[in-house]
C-alpha cells in the first residue's frame, strides 16, 4: 500500500502545501486507488508537516508549491515531493497513477503570500 497526500483547498490542489486546508490521502494498491480519506492541516509550523505526514504513513506529497526547506525535510522523512501540480484532486491522482504526473521541481520562495506559490 502506498499513501499519496495531496495538499488541497476544496476539491483542487493547493498552491502552497503549508497553507492548505488539509490533505486528501489516496491509498494505492496494485496500481489503483483502494481508499481515500482527509487529514486536516494541523497548522503551518516550520518543520512540522513533514514529520506529521510521515507519522501518518504518507509516502508521497503533491502540491502546487513548496519551499526548499520543506522539500528537503520531506526527503529526510523518506517522502517523495511532487510540486507544480494544478487542477482537481481526481485529475491529479489519476495522472499520478498513470505515471504522467511530473514534478516541476520549482521552489517557492515567497512566504508573505496567500496562495501564489506556483511559479
TrEMBL record:
Classification via InterPro entries:
Di-Nase_FeMo-co_biosynth, DiNase_FeMo-co_biosyn_sf, MTH1175_dom
Q: Where is the Dinitrogenase iron-molybdenum cofactor biosynthesis domain?
A: 9-97
* Pfam families cross-referenced by the UniProt entry: Nitro_FeMo-Co
Q: Which CDD domains match?
A: MTH1175
Protein's UniProt name: Predicted Fe-Mo cluster-binding protein, NifX family
Lineage start = Bacteria, Bacillati, Bacillota, Clostridia, Peptostreptococcales
Amino acid at each position: 500500500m502506498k499513501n499519496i497526500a495531496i495538499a488541497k483547498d476544496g476539491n483542487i490542489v493547493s498552491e502552497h502545501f503549508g497553507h492548505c486546508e488539509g490533505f486528501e490521502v489516496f491509498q494505492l494498491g496494485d496500481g489503483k486507488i483502494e481508499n481515500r480519506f482527509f487529514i486536516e492541516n494541523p497548522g503551518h509550523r516550520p518543520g512540522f508537516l513533514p514529520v506529521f505526514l510521515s507519522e501518518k504513513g504518507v509516502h508521497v506529497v503533491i502540491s502546487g508549491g513548496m519551499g526548499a526547506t520543506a522539500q528537503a525535510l520531506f526527503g529526510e522523512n523518506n517522502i517523495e515531493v511532487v510540486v507544480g501540480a494544478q487542477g482537481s484532486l481526481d485529475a491529479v491522482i489519476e495522472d499520478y497513477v498513470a505515471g504522467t504526473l511530473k514534478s516541476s521541481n520549482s521552489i517557492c520562495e515567497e512566504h508573505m503570500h496567500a496562495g501564489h506559490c506556483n511559479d
